[in-house]
Specification:
238 residues, mainly alpha, 0% strand
């Protein structure tokens, strides 16, 4: 169940949240409800496949997900906050922390995690089921990894919110790169990992280097490489 709920979050909150839905969700309650319905459906389906009795906790995860995503629509207009890059990064990290905390609470309530050592329980579960752990790792370095890299880079380097319409073209290329890098690390071919990004550097570098976008572009590549290396190394420990 632990792996199923983590996978449901990655799929529902990232893989099945396309660009227009994310834009809609950030502006209207209807968008939040549509996204929440997708997350709830994925969570409930995966829960039922593992343990039918877990369905109330699956609905709890879905309902709480909607509440967390809807809160900024009501809260932000009422707060006088400087909404720069660090604000958006902090908001993203808080959002994900809350969602994952709810999942952990549900797993504890359902008897799948001990309230005394939930993190140790998650790690032990992943080690006991390496196939699912690898699936989670590869899903994470795809869309979730892309979103995380963009928020980190734009927030810390560019001091702005991610410019997703501009970087969407790199979404699938970056995912393929991270998959290859993680795979090379898993196979112990560490020297091949950095070479994965050479084709993109050769094709895109001349158009980017020397322009205002260079710092963001280079940092994106390095952050993406670091993320894939970290996931590959973590999976090697299982």
């Amino acid at each position: 169940m632990i792996s199923a709920m983590l996978l449901a979050h990655l799929v529902g909150d990232y893989v099945l949240q396309w660009d227009r839905l994310a834009y809609w969700k950030s502006r209207e309650l209807k968008g939040v409800l549509a996204h929440g319905a997708i997350v709830s459906a994925v969570t409930l389906i995966l829960a039922l496949l593992v343990d039918v009795a877990f369905w109330p906790w699956a609905l709890f995860i879905g309902a709480t997900h909607i509440a967390i995503d809807a809160a900024p629509l009501w809260l932000l207009p009422r707060l006088d906050l400087k909404q720069g890059g660090l604000f958006e990064l902090s908001r993203f990290l808080i959002d994900q922390t809350l969602h994952l905390s709810v999942i952990v609470l549900a797993l504890m309530g359902g008897g799948y995690l001990s309230p005394h050592a939930p993190l140790a329980g998650v790690i032990a579960h992943l080690r006991a089921d390496p196939l699912m752990a690898h699936l989670l790792g590869y899903v994470f370095v795809a869309m979730p990894g892309w979103v995380l890299v963009e928020f980190l880079v734009y927030g810390l380097v560019n001091h702005s919110a991610p410019d997703f319409p501009t970087v969407t073209a790199y979404k699938y290329v970056g995912t393929l790169e991270r998959w290859l890098i993680a795979t090379f690390v898993l196979l112990g071919q560490f020297a091949l990992a950095p070479l994965v990004m050479l084709p993109r550097l050769a094709l895109e570098g001349p158009q980017v280097f020397g322009t205002p976008r260079q710092p963001v572009y280079v940092t994106e590549l390095l952050a993406s490489l670091a993320l894939a290396l970290a996931v590959g190394l973590a999976l090697r420990q299982l």
